[in-house]
């Protein structure tokens, strides 16, 4: 099978691991920097040019590893492959939805998947009302497209919440406000989904005096043992966003598990290290199961 990974670098841990496992299983695999791809539309069949060659007919499957900063261009490249009949481990629409926290939460709420109480608005004159809708401080303020814990702020007082929100409004920055789940103890759970299976799950714990649990911010991890409800939530979330491969983040509260967000290209380094599960291998096996070689 001919596999393309859309990634900005061959030496990125997750990209490198997928390359290793694909080669071990006998597949041809290439890393394509999607930021260096051009699309030609117009008369005749569309072309997708990389390093001077039209590559649109070459792969049987693509594995998008699209970062937030180039999500629109990356999703457009994925869309061209999709329209040419190439299987993708993340749909172009799913990538865009997952990278917008509000859109993800809107879909989850519509599908009756539990989420934290959330408020968003573009009206800087009703900041007090927004805070009040969540029962007052403390509250969590998040940039709509932040990653790895960046752009996530705990406002412990009404004064600080108003100051942060006012600053974001003046910067014309999209954000949302959520209830603070104190009983989570700075922990959340990352679940890796492949189709209708859970590959691995990890509990992430933030550093002392750090409410964010992200490993990139100094957090630690351990194997997480999921309830049936948590498994169902993760599988349904990835399905509703049309992401065959996804990282689903949940937080455990007194009300039960709540979905925080879904990642269309979850990192593998932390979860492979803490769970000792070969996640990259299972992703390639999922592809083998679901993709037929193009003739």
TrEMBL record:
Report the GO molecular function annotations. Answer: ATP binding; metal ion binding; ribosomal S6-glutamic acid ligase activity
The GO cellular component terms are: cytoplasm
Coiled-coil annotated spans: none
Has keyword Iron? no
Quick check: keyword Kinase in the entry?
Answer: no
Instruction: Provide one Gene Ontology biological process annotation.
Output: translation
Key words of the record: ATP-binding, Ligase, Magnesium, Manganese, Metal-binding, Nucleotide-binding, Protein biosynthesis
Q: Which cofactor does it need?
A: Mg(2+); Mn(2+)
**What is the name listed in the Swiss-Prot or TrEMBL entry for this protein?**
RimK family alpha-L-glutamate ligase
Species for this entry: Aureibaculum marinum
């Amino acid at each position: 099978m001919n596999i393309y990974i859309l990634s900005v670098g061959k030496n990125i841990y997750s990209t490198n691991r997928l390359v290793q496992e694909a080669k071990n299983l006998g597949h041809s695999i290439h890393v394509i920097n999607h930021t260096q791809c051009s699309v030609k539309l117009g008369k005749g069949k569309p072309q997708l040019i990389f390093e001077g060659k039209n590559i649109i007919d070459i792969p049987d499957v693509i594995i998008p590893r699209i970062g937030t900063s180039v999500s629109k261009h990356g999703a457009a490249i994925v869309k061209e492959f999709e329209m040419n009949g190439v299987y993708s481990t993340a749909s172009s629409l799913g990538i865009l939805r997952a990278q917008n926290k509000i859109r993800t939460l809107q879909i989850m709420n519509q599908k009756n998947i539990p989420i934290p109480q959330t408020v968003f608005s573009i009206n800087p004159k009703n900041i007090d009302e927004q805070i009040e809708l969540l029962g007052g401080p403390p509250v969590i303020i998040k940039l709509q497209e932040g990653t790895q814990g960046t752009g996530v702020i705990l406002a412990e007082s009404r004064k600080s919440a108003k100051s942060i929100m006012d600053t974001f409004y003046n910067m014309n920055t999209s954000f949302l406000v959520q209830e603070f789940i104190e009983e989570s103890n700075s922990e959340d759970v990352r679940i890796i989904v492949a189709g209708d299976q859970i590959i691995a799950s990890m509990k992430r714990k933030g550093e002392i005096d750090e409410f964010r649990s992200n490993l990139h911010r100094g957090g630690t991890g351990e194997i997480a043992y999921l309830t049936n409800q948590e498994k169902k939530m993760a599988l349904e979330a990835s399905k509703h966003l049309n992401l065959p491969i996804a990282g689903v983040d949940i937080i455990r509260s007194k009300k039960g598990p709540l979905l925080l967000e879904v990642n269309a290209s979850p990192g593998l380094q932390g979860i492979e290290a803490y769970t000792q599960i070969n996640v990259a291998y299972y992703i390639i096996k999922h592809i083998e199961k679901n993709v037929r070689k193009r003739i």
